[in-house]
From TrEMBL:
It catalyses: CMP + ATP = CDP + ADP; UMP + ATP = UDP + ADP; dCMP + ATP = dCDP + ADP. NCBIfam families: UMP_CMP_kin_fam. One of its GO terms (biological process) is nucleoside monophosphate metabolic process. CMP binds at N141. It comes from the Eukaryota. Binds 1 Mg(2+) ion per monomer. CDD domains: ADK. Monomer. This is UMP-CMP kinase. Its EC number is 2.7.4.14. The gene is LOC111430588. ATP binds at G60, S61, G62, K63, G64, T65, R173, G216.
Length: 238
């Protein structure tokens, strides 16, 4: 039998809880009888300090592409907020229709919902290094994350790319996404400027932002990304 433990904030983000010390952070399941063996805690649940990277940039700026290279080289777990939302639509969940309509309009899904999906993936993970791609998309996303997690990211990557290049890439993507059409792209670019750039500026002011020139080949861009992570002395995979 398992019981829900409402707060394990003492297990997580011990040194980073500068935002809200009373934040209810992660929930986990704990055995309270001897009939069933105690569930193994994942690395993440054991880790006192997960390493969180937010990956920001406009639509088509190359966030997902560069995340794949960071995963390959440094063993991060990649959590794309957009991908988690698309998965929620595909699973026919109660929120699926609302999410689909929001994505078609290029708007932002309510923060609590997106954070719930991210949190679930983190809890299930065996890793402690996370790339959270496409999040926070707005000041509301950011504030809700800080409130719920009681923590701030360690690193914020921002892929800076001109609009015409982003539009070209998205229209050539060919992955069947409902929002990869010119009408929705225009809306996404407006939302990016209005809601996401304030988040970028927030982290710039906090000294956490690594601005990457998003123009060039994938490898040229990755050459700017690699030193960000090697400076933290993570094990590099060969
Ligand atoms: N440096 C690059 N040069 C040319 N094409 C690129 C480059 N980086 C990525 N692409 C291509 O551009 C498209 C968009 O890239 P990607 O999916 O990584 O962007 P994204 O920032 O994750 O976009 P979104 O926010 O819409 O998910 C993909 O088809 C990808 O293969
Ligand atoms: N924090 C987020 C992230 C994404 N969305 C919605 O998903 C769409 C696709 O996101 P990508 O990162 O895959 O481009 C995005 O345009 C939003 O509609 C969100 O609401 N909140
Ligand atoms: Mg993406």
């Amino acid at each position: 039998m398992w019981r829900r433990v409402t707060s394990v904030s003492h297990l997580t983000f011990a040194h980073k809880s500068t935002v809200n010390k009373n934040a209810c952070t992660f929930k986990c399941w704990e055995s309270f009888t001897t009939e069933i063996p105690r569930k193994e805690k994942t690395t993440y649940q054991r880790a006192k300090t997960p390493f969180i990277t937010f990956v920001l940039g406009g639509p088509g700026s190359g966030k997902g592409t560069q995340c794949m290279k960071i995963v390959e080289n440094f063993g991060f777990t990649h959590l794309s907020a957009g991908e988690l939302l698309r998965r929620e639509i595909a699973s026919n969940s109660a929120d699926g229709i609302m999410i689909l309509n929001t994505i078609k309009e290029g708007k932002i899904v309510p923060s609590e919902l997106t954070i719930k999906l991210i949190q679930k993936e983190m809890e299930l993970s065996d890793n402690y290094k996370f790339l959270i791609d496409g999040f926070p998309r707005s000041e509301d996303n950011r504030k809700a994350f800080e409130q719920i997690f009681g923590a701030e990211p360690d690193v914020v990557l921002f892929f800076d790319c001109p609009e015409d290049e982003m539009v070209k890439r998205v229209l050539n993507r060919n992955q069947g996404r409902v929002d990869d059409n010119i009408d929705t792209i225009k809306k996404r670019l407006k939302v990016f400027t209005a809601l996401n750039l304030p988040v970028v500026n927030h982290y710039l002011e906090k000294g956490k932002l690594y601005k990457i020139n998003g123009v060039g080949t994938v490898d040229e861009i990755y050459k700017q990304v690699h030193p960000v992570f090697s400076s933290f002395h993570f094990e590099v995979r060969v």
